[in-house]
Structure formats: C-alpha cells, structure tokens
Amino acid sequence: MEEIEYYIVVNGGVSKCKRSVTEEGVQFYKESPKGKKYVAYEDDIHHPFIHNFIFKNKEDAQKSIINNTISPTVLKWKEDQTKPSLKIYLAGFHVFHPDSLIIRTRMINLCEKYGYRGLYPSDNEPIDNLQKEEQATMIFYSNEGLIRECDIIVANLNPFRGNEPDSGTVFECGLGYGLGKKLYGYIDNGQSMKERLIVDVDKKTGLYKDGMFIEDFNLPLNLMLAIPMTIVVGSLEDCLKKLAEDNSMC
C-alpha cells in the first residue's frame, strides 16, 4: 500500500511528511535526500496535539499560518542521530541574489566542512501559489522557525544598499539574542564607523552629511550589534573558522 503524504506546520513553515506508528505512538516524519530522518516533536505534549498541525493539503496548512489559527513555530524537527550537529542559521542579504540557490549550496557545504549544519531560508514547500502579502507572512514565520531551531546565528553584516547591514538580518540577530542564541557576524571592512564615514563628516561641526553625529566607540558596527556579537573581519569561512576555534576551547 502506498504511504499517504500529509502536510505539517513545523518550524514556522509547511513541509510534506509521512505518518508511522511506533512503540511510542504515532509519529510524523520526513526524510532528507541523504536519507536522514526527522521527526516532528514538541517537548511535554501528547501526540493528539500534533494532529492540530497536520493537514491533507498544502493550501489548508498555509492558511493556518496566514490566518493565525495556530502557532507556526511550536513544532520542531528532531534529527534521528546520536550526535546531532550544531545548527547555524545563515543570516544575510544573500537571499536576494539571483544565484541564491547556488550560494545556499556553497554556504551549507562550508558549514558541513567545519562540522555544522547550515539552515538556509528555502527548505519548505514552495509558496508561489500565494499572493505577495501572504508569501511575506510565510517567509517571516519560516525564518523565525529556523532561528528558534538553530544553536548559532552567523550573519553577513556588510553594508546593504547604504552604510548599514540589511535591516532584516539585524532583526534576526536581535531575535536570536533574545532567544539566547550564540551570535557571530562577518564583515569585509574592520574600520570603525567613524573611520569609514569620515569623508562625509563636516570638519567644522563634526556632523555627518545627514546633520547628525556618528556613533564613536571604535566599533565597526552599531554597538547594539558589535557588543553582543563576535565580529570577524573576513568571509563566511573565516567566521566559521573562528566559531570552530571558540567551540574547541569550550
């Protein structure tokens, strides 16, 4: 008999899953292309609760998120292995690149090289059947779910369309801090903010061209990022090397 596929709301997104009956009860799970098994779970609940997050079609599952009828980040995937890798959420504006999927593969492979599992915001069911505002809602909760699932956030904090990092990435770092995640970031230029922007500062008033002062604490980024995060001057790989070194000393 062909096994029935369901749709589950887990980690803030919608995924296909299958149902099995074990000694522990009913499980809903998915398998990766590499054959790893992931089981949907939430601590300290009974299986009937999970059924509230199971749907027979993708559209109904999506509507439950868009209409806020369930909390989309309650369930998580538990990887079926004895020593699960630490999970890294790969934050940054690379998601806007035309070759985002190619970049995704490179970044995830780099994480694996250093013993981590990279989480990139594109692993759920396609949402191109939805209106743009609905797609935005789905993307928000999907990214929130990945941040809640991860152990570490590694963020591209280079300037994006101006002098500051991508605003969405900054929000994700703040959410990660609030959730107690480790925070790492990488930048190309390690100069302080004042050093980088001095060319547009009025020598007489000390004001930047927008008429305001520049934050001056000898930090490369706003203190609300630079203080709670480990900032690495270099590439993603340089940041992963630093992370691996720090973990080896723990």
From TrEMBL:
It comes from the Bacteria. InterPro entries: 2'-dNMP_N-hydrolase, Nucleoside_deoxyribTrfase. It holds the Pfam family Nuc_deoxyrib_tr. Gene3D superfamilies: 3.40.50.450. PANTHER family: 2'-DEOXYNUCLEOSIDE 5'-PHOSPHATE N-HYDROLASE 1. This is Nucleoside 2-deoxyribosyltransferase. It comes from Niallia hominis.
